[in-house]
Specification:
Length: about 140
């Protein structure tokens, strides 16, 4: 089956610009019709699905390019190991993002508890920056 740029964009909920970008990078194969318009086939759909999976895992365009290039090479143990290394790296980065999200959620839980104490009259309102002095200003902890 053949798909137009518009159909392919709708199928993957991306912009036509994104598809042009991926084809220009050589990540997404396409054919050209008689009017030199990009046309996609089932192989294109497979590649786009793979690209979206990697993108969804947080892979950079560079990592996606590397992975796609490896997929185009002859199958070998070395090739499989290289693709595996990319996937391991993405998994490690995902776990790191999870830990960062947990730390952010904990920080926000503490903020909510602090506001609840203020609202209950158990603590003074020290949340408004316009009332802070150099001594009373909360310390920044990179959040």
């Amino acid at each position: 089956m053949k798909y137009t740029m518009k159909q392919m964009a709708a199928m993957f909920d991306v912009t036509e610009h994104t598809l042009r970008y991926y084809t220009d990078l050589g990540l997404l194969p396409c054919e050209r019709d008689s009017g030199n318009r990009r046309m996609f086939n089932e192989e294109s759909v497979n590649w786009m699905q793979g690209i979206q999976c990697l993108k969804g895992c947080g892979a950079s365009i560079e990592n996606i390019k590397e992975y796609c290039c490896l997929c185009l090479l002859e199958e070998s143990q070395e090739n499989l190991q290289a693709r595996y290394a990319i996937i391991l790296k993405q998994r490690n980065e995902a776990y790191k993002r999870v830990e960062e999200a947990k730390a952010t959620a904990k920080y926000m839980d503490d903020k909510v508890a602090h506001y609840e104490a203020i609202l209950a009259g158990l603590a003074p309102d020290d949340t408004n920056p316009k009332n802070w002095t150099a001594e009373s200003r909360p310390k920044h902890d990179n959040r």
